[in-house]
Amino acid sequence: MISPYLPIGEYGPYPERLRQQFEGVIWRFRTGGQWREMPQEFGAWSTVHNRFRQWRDAGVFEAMLEGLIAEAARLGEVDLTLVSVDSTTARAHHDAAGMHLSPDVITALEKAAAEEEKARQKGAARKDKTDGTPKMTRSGKSDNASGVGANSD
User: 148 and 134 in contact (C-beta within 8 Å)?
Assistant: First the structure.
């Protein structure tokens, strides 16, 4: 199924080695191992890596995927229940998104962020100083100003 998509050049590898190199690429991405950890049965890791780069740059993997999907559709073996879309949202700095803001707006945003951080730190410091639990004095009375939890004699 994949042999029509693997290019065999005039001076390229013999077909047996080509298959080994393709299987080496598959091993690399299936295991997540490093190229240098590749077993010798696939050939020299540097050769397999170079072959992968050549195939990637030539669009071999895209052509293989499209061709195999088309062949499966022709045979009526496409099962769209197996299709999954996954997405991840990552926040980026406005410079990374190509957003252009005037210096005045940037200054105002930075000032607002600094004020918000200062308020957050004050709130955290206040929370650390008082944990909200009333303290009992020697006389058994609470020193809580609200009188809640006070021990009445």
Answer: yes
